[in-house]
Amino acid sequence: MRIISGKYKGKQIKGFDIEGTRPTMDRVKESLFAMIQNYVQGSTCLDLFAGSGSLGIEALSNGGKICYFVDNNPKVIQILKENTKQIEHSEILFLDYQESLVYFKKNHISFDLIFLDPPYQKHLLKESIQMIEEYQLLRLHGILVCEFTDEEFSSSYSLIKEKTYHDKKIRIYQNEM
Q1: Residue 14 domain-assigned (yes or no)
Q2: 28: part of which helix (H) or strand (E)?
Q3: How would you write the pLDDT of the chain (177 residues) with one tens digit per residue?
Q4: Which residues of 133-168 are buried (b: 16+ CB within 10 A; e: fewer)?
Q5: What CATH number corresponds to the domain at position 155?
Q6: d(Cα 26, Cα 31) in Å, to the nearest integer?
Q7: How far apart are CA 110 and CA 101, in angstroms?
Q8: Strand, coil or helix: what is 143?
């Protein structure tokens, strides 16, 4: 795995082999960032269920202002620390996704760009999106990127793009409220 564009282009990313993680393949990541490229520059990002941190690092590489990486797996946190060692403006939180969303609410931290790529078998998108909406963590005109396989969920945000890559699906929502 590597960073595909921007400031950190070519940087190798560790963590593709950690149990319970499922990294976004380069081809999918390239297509995804082509879809959201106009929203990345200067953005405050959240990579919830961060895994290797590939999506958040890609956002920082392409002009994101800061990225918060959240995961609750100690092995993943160690890999995230290694992967972001030379990456500016990255904050790693070793928290459960629910605890992290409460933390952001309490500390008045909101986002322009949120990546949601939870473990597929746990079906956590619906609850994550509900909490993000309830706590108003996505700024006006902010983008929510959801990666999933077969989970059923919806959002009060506007669906602006949807794409399927074999068994993987990506939905991109925008907060227009």
Answers
A1: no
A2: helix 26-40
A3: 889 999 999 999 998 666 655 566 678 889 999 999 999 999 999 999 999 999 999 999 999 999 999 999 999 999 999 999 989 999 999 999 999 999 999 999 999 999 999 987 788 999 999 999 999 999 999 999 999 988 788 899 999 999 998 888 999 999 997
A4: beeebbeeebbbbbbbeeeebebebeeeeeeeeeeb
A5: 3.40.50.150
A6: 9
A7: 10
A8: strand
